[in-house]
Amino acid sequence: MSLQAEETQDSASAQTSQEKDNRVHLKSVVTASPMRSQLDELNRNVYAIDKDNIQNKGYRNTEDIFRYTPFVGLSNVGLGSNLDLRGQGNRANTSVQVLINGIYSNMLDSSHGVTPLNTLSPNAIESIEILPGGGAVMYGNGTRGGVVNIITQKRYEQPYFNAGVSYSNIIASTGNNYNADARFGTKLGQSTYLTIGAAYINRGGPRIGDKTTGAQANLALIHDFMPGHSVSLDVDYFTGKILTTPNNSFMDIANPTKAHRKTPGYGSLHNRQNRLDVSVGYEGQMSEKSKLELKAFYHLNRIDYVDSITMLSRFNYGSFAFSDASADQSGSFFDDQKTGLLAKFDYKGEKHRFIVGAESLYAIGKRTMSQNIGASTNSLTYDHLVYIPFNGSKWSNALYALSKYDFTKRFSLTGGLRYENALYDIDVTNAHNISINGRNVGNYSTKGSLRDSVHNWALEITPNFAYSDSGNLYAKYEKGFFSPSPNNMLKRTGTSSSNYAYEPTSLKNEEYHTFEIGLKDFLGEHMFVSASAFYTLTTNEFYTIGNAHSVDGVQYGNYDFTQRAGIELFAEQYFLGDSLRFSESFTYVDAKILKLNGTNVSYQIPYVSNYKATIGVSYAFNRFFSIWNQNTFYGAQKDIMQENNANHQDTIPAYSLTDIGLNLKLGDFSLSGGVRNVFDTFYYSYYNGNAADTIAGYGFLIGQGRSAFIEGRWSF
């Protein structure tokens, strides 16, 4: 289900002249830049990227697409990248809702919390829809930054086939990439639509020893069993193997440079990942003005640590200091499963739109950290076994309603309300066995469990004024919420094994208030502009220090107040009969902690770039040959705070990336090639300067250097 799937297919006679004019312009906008922008029929600010602007760009993975997408950041806390909107930073995994074909894909366990973006081949994506800032009424929990929906399904009225093979080489480092994909779609008979696709991934990385291999397969089946009524089945599966090394450590490389791009981490990692998304849906036109949608889905994302050994050049235990140690986490795993039921009734009259919906989502987050830390000196051996199985479930049930009323041809008002209840069931064990020189000095096991419920509600009010046939001015207020992940609900307390225990974290309810104003307009025949300003104030925002791999566990707490204020600007121009196209965007975000433990502070929220800008240009010489260039600029960030102390926040430098490419199309065959990161910019894709956590922190990853790609594609 897309962000716009709830839009009713209206007849032309039911549309205002302003809506007609927008659709005419937006049709050309789709071909004019990587992104199109519009207010949808519920006055929501939506941006979309279509397939034509994803293919033929040499993207190694889906994550790379968003590196060049306006307004979207990438937040990496050491275990992988999450999509970030409006400055969520290290909370991006829980505050930006990512959907795959309308299925909630964020991992329930926020201590790991990496959305499985890279289990999707870029060429399997039909479109991407982005809703910056909110969506709490329609999409519920964890949407403070916004919603991103990645769509792989499409109806094909005529037989369609598309297949491609690509190769890229990281010139400035190591790692070759081979990718292949194919998709076939057709209409069977008068009422059945079939789409099948497959992709193979063989992806190297910047460092020696980095390699990911995997395969993705998907199937979509739609059957119209009577006029206005259809059932659908969607299946998307990925399986892959990841060979890599741990994050590079500042203990080994104090001052990283380009010369360290190829340097592997100290150790070796072998992981397996499997993702499965299955959904069954029904859409029925109940009357000329009403429609009913039902969907049931299942989501699985599992990561197994087959062989996982991190070597440490320095490790401290009490008064003992070891110059060499190892942490073996083989046998650990993360398992995320969701089962859901969605129902929505949509009524549209001449001036009134009304939507009412219900959702039931049962999610289970399982993980086991099995870790053996070993170290030795000439006279001392140290062994520390850690075993922490965690099993947490969250059953969320919600009701929501949205209504829009057109008071005049120019002015409309949208309002909505959502109620959500979450039930928790949590069990955890924390077992340790410590020995020195073979003598047991610590052997304990602590267990905890919790049954609890949380109630939340969301509110949205959005007036919109169409001040001309092409221009809209809108404002929005949204009150949203975050209901915690199960792993946020319990904490280990005590100072020694004799009094260790698990207690509820007793975190306060987190809620946010967003105020936004924006406009969209066409300036003449050749330019479209979009601008918005927003301010989000959050009370009791959750924070964590550490993650699931930290030996000392995780600290939890609430910030009294945080703010995120900023602007989002987007423009595009198209000339020479649409042959010459330009697009620009600029985002500025001031993300701060305002108050902590009753004290006014001014700390930067970790992993938020203070700005992001993009510039793109393309020129089609004729219908056979075109060239393109895209650029992205990221502002500086602060890394993770140590014990909520801004003095222990390092600055992650700003950087920019530039790509160039060309496309050649000869009938059904196309060939593309180019260079990514043309100027071989040095940048960090991950940075953590916390020297106190040498296993899960105090490390870095250097971003990909200059690479060249070539891709051939056949489509008919």
Using the alpha-carbon principal axes, give the shape.
Answer: globular
> What share of the residues does DSSP label as strand, in percent?
over 45%
Helix content: under 10%
How many strands appear in the DSSP assignment? Answer: 41
Q: If you compute it from the alpha carbons, what radius of gyration comes out, rounded to the nearest whole angstrom?
A: 26 Å
- Given as residue ranges, the uncertain stretches (5+ residues, pLDDT < 50) are 4-33
Helix count from the secondary structure assignment: 4
In short:
4% of the residues lie in helices and 61% in strands.
How would you characterize the overall build of this protein?
- By secondary structure, the protein is mainly β.
- Helix content is 4%, strand content 61%.
- The chain contains 4 helices and 41 strands.
- The strands form 7 sheets. It has a 24-stranded antiparallel beta sheet that branches.
- A hairpin with a 4-residue loop joins strand 3 and strand 4 (81-85).
- Residues 4-33 have low confidence and may be disordered.
